[in-house]
Automatic annotation (TrEMBL):
Keywords: Carbohydrate metabolism, Cytoplasm, Fucose metabolism, Isomerase, Manganese, Metal-binding. Its EC number is 5.3.1.25. The active site is at E342, D366. This is L-fucose isomerase. Its main location: cytoplasm. Its cofactor is Mn(2+). It catalyses: L-fucose = L-fuculose. It is found in: Cytoplasm.
């Protein structure tokens, strides 16, 4: 659908149809050939129809040339998959097979096994056997087995099997897409925030990525020496002047900027956005003599330090961050970038996980304030209703402009439902409504002495969302927190009063979690009290189950979540690490260690 911005091919899924290799008078193998290969074809069709890469193209799936009844055919399949660039394998079978002879032995592939729940041949017996062999050899694999018995001539995939296949596929494609790419930090540590202290070992060993670093002065060098795409800059500036609605200036009149100074700041921040794009992914249109700069850093995600050395002197990065994180710009709808404000790499990686799973623009926000039912009543005389009342309150998600503009919730589906769409479904009308709902206000000079602009909008609708935080803990390593919930729609006058108690020029989202009545999800307050850092990454939809699967592939334990237990899907070997699901996760991740150690 769109040309990839990154160097390196997208991951490929390989389907391995394994079979009982016995022939002879009763023709055991021959009787199973069609059924086995049809399972492979059905799985391939399911993947290609429902999973796409971040550029919008359907996932590439290859199938072994023959069914696999023994080690010779397994080797032939492995050779084909190496040449095809397969990163993920799904082994399928309706029958008993010789596990250790037919299994995927490649230590670098992400593995799943689907054994048919049937009565004619013991597919479930093979599944149990080969999963045990995977565990014995230290090669974790996801086991997929349907609840209901299927007839031998059935060609469809049961719904519960589809759910597991797609969860495995989405998570595995996301994991494999990150491999070999870069996180680019522009600047370094911001205001002593731990999340912006880069840990290269974590990024290399757990994600298979590398860290690239440039000083913020590189942006100034490129501006000064004209190392940017002049044609794109002119187009971007014209679009910005036409489409960006100017908001109020909250600063005292004595320090407000003149019209001339404001115009120069707009040119600065637009040029800054163009340059950050080039730093991340290169630009072949740079002038001759700048071949080195035209290559970029192959960054699948990046972060901009900003505060304070930059923002005390230059216009802030809010325009670049907000627009790059959104699903469109002057070229129309396009794949969102991931650019973390304050160079919070941990939040940026969280945003990256969510983007790769959903293909949607992501929200970067402070998890700033817990508003209890009593506090809202005291300040506004409003009684909470619906989900926020059930949770005993809500959280205020707000930051200085880095949230994607899509978070205004102005995009609508065919039924008129408000949402954040996959980027390739965003229409021109969606873009128009989003831009009209957003104002660009002069930066708060108390925070940003150098000026600049902050995007300002209100998420004034209820949408299902998932908020996550990736944390690093000394002695433990990485862990992930997941909170599924909803954005909260408040009456305008109530929202206004609460919003004005913090920075009224920043994008505002009210969020409440789904309450389970236990632990961190006993109430919205308990979630706030257990959250691991000052930031959160927020995505449209309830995707916690996919995140749990993704983290198990990477060996990152999940420390907090409100995902129903029946949706939790991890490799079968996790069952050997105890009876409690979360304890299993910690022990298994510790035993297997980082995916790329």
């Amino acid at each position: 659908m769109a040309v990839s911005r990154l160097i390196g091919s997208y991951p490929v899924i390989g389907i391995r149809p394994v079979i009982d290799g016995r022939r002879g008078y009763l023709k055991v193998r021959e009787s199973l050939e069609d059924q086995t290969m049809n399972m492979a074809k059905a799985a391939a069709e399911l993947f290609q129809s429902n999973i796409c890469y971040s550029n919008g193209d359907p996932v590439n799936v290859v199938i072994a040339d023959t069914t696999i009844g023994g080690v010779g055919e397994a080797a032939a399949c492995a050779d084909k998959f190496r040449r095809a660039g397969v990163d993920i394998t799904l082994t399928v079978t309706p029958c008993w097979c010789y596990g250790a002879e037919t299994m995927d032995m490649d230590t670098k592939t992400i593995k799943g096994v689907w054994g048919l729940n049937g009565t004619e041949r013991p597919g479930a017996v093979y599944l149990a056997s080969v999963l045990a062999t995977h565990a014995q050899k230290g090669l974790p694999a996801f086991g997929i087995y349907g609840q209901d018995v299927q007839d031998a001539d059935e060609t469809g995939i049961p719904e519960d099997v589809k759910e597991k296949l797609l969860r495995f596929g989405r998570a595995a494609v996301a994991v494999a897409t990150m491999r070999g790419k870069s996180y680019l930090q522009i600047g370094s540590i911001c205001m002593g925030i731990g999340g912006s202290i880069i840990d290269p070992s974590f990024i290399e060993e757990y994600l298979g990525m590398r860290v690239e670093s440039v000083d913020e002065v590189e942006i100034i060098r490129r501006m000064t020496e004209g190392i940017y795409d002049k044609e794109e800059f002119d187009k971007a500036l014209a679009w910005t002047k036409k489409n960006c609605v100017i908001g109020f200036d909250k600063n005292p009149e004595a320090v407000q900027k003149s019209q001339e100074e404001t115009e120069k700041d707009w040119e600065f921040v637009v040029k800054m956005m163009c340059i950050i794009k080039d730093l991340m992914n290169g630009n072949p249109n740079l002038d001759k003599g700048f071949e080195e700069e035209s290559l970029g850093h192959n960054a699948i995600a990046a972060g901009f330090q900003g505060q304070r050395q930059w923002t005390d002197f230059y216009p802030n990065g809010d325009f670049a961050e907000a627009m790059l994180n959104s699903s469109f710009d002057w070229n129309g709808a396009r794949e969102p970038y991931i650019l973390a404000t304050e160079n919070d790499v941990l939040n940026g990686i969280g945003m990256l996980f969510l983007k790769l799973l959903t293909n949607r623009a992501q929200i970067f926000a402070d998890v700033r304030t817990y508003w209890s039912e009593a506090a809202v009543k005291r300040v506004t005389d409003y009684n909470l209703e619906g989900r926020s009342k059930e949770a005993g309150g809500f959280l205020h998600l707000i930051n200085s402009g880095a949230a994607c503009l899509d978070a205004s919730g102005k995009a609508v589906d065919k039924s008129g439902n408000r949402m954040i769409k996959p980027w390739f479904e965003v229409t021109e009308e969606d873009q128009k409504q989003i831009m009209e709902a957003t104002t660009w206000n002069q930066a708060d000079f108390g925070y940003f002495r150098g000026g600049g602009f902050s995007s300002r909008f209100l998420t004034d609708c209820e949408m299902p969302v998932t908020m996550i935080r990736l944390n690093l803990v000394k002695g433990l390593g990485p862990s992930l927190q997941i909170a599924e919930g909803y954005t909260v729609h408040l009456p305008e006058e109530v929202s206004d009063v609460l919003w004005k108690r913090t920075d009224y020029t920043w994008p505002c989202t009210w969020f409440t979690p789904i309450i389970t009545g236990q632990g961190a999800f006993a109430s919205a307050y308990d979630l706030m009290n257990n959250w691991g850092a000052n930031h959160g990454a927020i995505s449209y939809g309830h995707v916690g189950a996919d995140l749990i699967t993704l983290c198990s592939i990477l060996r990152i334990p999940v420390s907090l979540h409100n995902v129903p237990e029946e949706k939790i899907f991890r490799p079968a070997a996790w069952n050997a690490f105890g009876m409690d699901k979360e304890g299993q996760d910690y022990r298994a991740c510790q035993t297997y260690g980082p995916l790329y150690k």
